[in-house]
# Entry
Amino acid sequence: MIRRLMIANRGEIALRIIRACRELGIESVAVYSDADEQAPHVHAADFAQHIGGSPAPDSYLNIPQLLDAARRAGADAIHPGYGFLSERAHFARACGNAGLTFVGPPPDAIERMGSKIGARELMQRAGVPVVPGETPADQSDDAMLAAVTHIGFPALIKPSAGGGGIGMKTVRAASEVLDAVQGARREAKAAFGDGTLYVERLVERPRHVEIQVFADTHGNVVHVFERECSIQRRHQKTVEESPCQVLTPAVRKQMGDAAVAAARAAGYVNAGTVEFLLEGEGDNARFFFLEMNTRLQVEHPVTELVAGVDLVHAQLRVAGGEPLPWTQDQLSQRGHAIECRIYAEDPAQNFLPQAGRLLVYREPHGPGIRIDAGVVEGSEVSVFYDPMLAKLIVTAENRVQAIARMTAALRQFIVLGIHTNIAFLLALFQHPRFIAGDIDTGFLDAEGAVLREYMNRGMPEAALAAALAHSEGIPDQSTQGALPASSDPFDTVTGWGRR
# Structure
């Protein structure tokens, strides 16, 4: 078993891993940059090591500094969290070369799945469905045009490296291909240092459904069911839930089996996620491999609440050489869980990231409410890192009750000092299309303007926040709105109604 674990990360995921260490009797080591010297994760860990300046390349992305910190702290293992170096094979390999256990997959598995082209070819050999597409050996403009013409319109031109939608271009006519190819290649080279492209058929209005997988070093591989991740903005997830309401038992089993086959083909170990595009509904729905995330996901609490497991505990046990704590037959789903991400951003200003001090930070509490946060009242939100403050996760017996619980919890979430997306999320959870489950990956693009319109109406919570600030002697910096309070979370006062 791991004795002393260094967490090569910050914020809420560092605190989440520290909590798991405490529960398993493992000593924890936090690392921190100049900007994070007083961050909550630093105070929560058993030990802490300074790793450099505030910019991420000087600290959380600095492999020599991280390995030196692990040596100084006497750590025998490193957990990368998510983001930063979590999917960098060379970091996993450097940890192994330094005699440290890397809590994650083998470097070779990260490399296999890190190339979208290579992963796609591997999945085809493993019998996992992939979107029809081509990867021209000749990467010239003419060859890319020929590939798109052969696949047919509409099509996607995608970089092999990276993620997050960077460099991805949609083309609906031959006249658009040349500019799209050159733009995709330019963006991919700038972001990832690799301009290799491939072409896929565009799946119109798909759902984004991912399967949690877990493998150990004893040959066991299981899936821990699905998460619906279709609510996303700029290819970044905003809301995740489980189960996916349109999956039939037959399709759920097919997707789970495909995800397990993908993990086996990759030689995978530890926690990972196989992402699919889902087209259609019912037993005739089709799904296609999208990519594999070779790390713990931001949205892992959704799976934990529905499946009744602790994925971080399992990560640490498997990394320590133990077999998986559950077999496939022992895993089941119960109830419904939803997660949303609370960001320091201004939805009224195109979601501009915010920085500053949290003058008031009050989390909701109650049955079925879980908060995984990286801040406390008084924390300074830095310009150097991702602006996520916390994850709000709720669970209930069914989806309708979970939405109601989420709406109630968001009304109780008070943040003063900076803008947040709380009011936007409240509007989202009361949108009739979301309530009806009529969602796809284009939902926020189609409905974003309407959501912002209702978000910006006069709202009692804004007045409540102002009153709270006044009572505590804080200048009125209430910047978050909320939808009008009501005993019915789907009240008609939003203007949408519920019929």
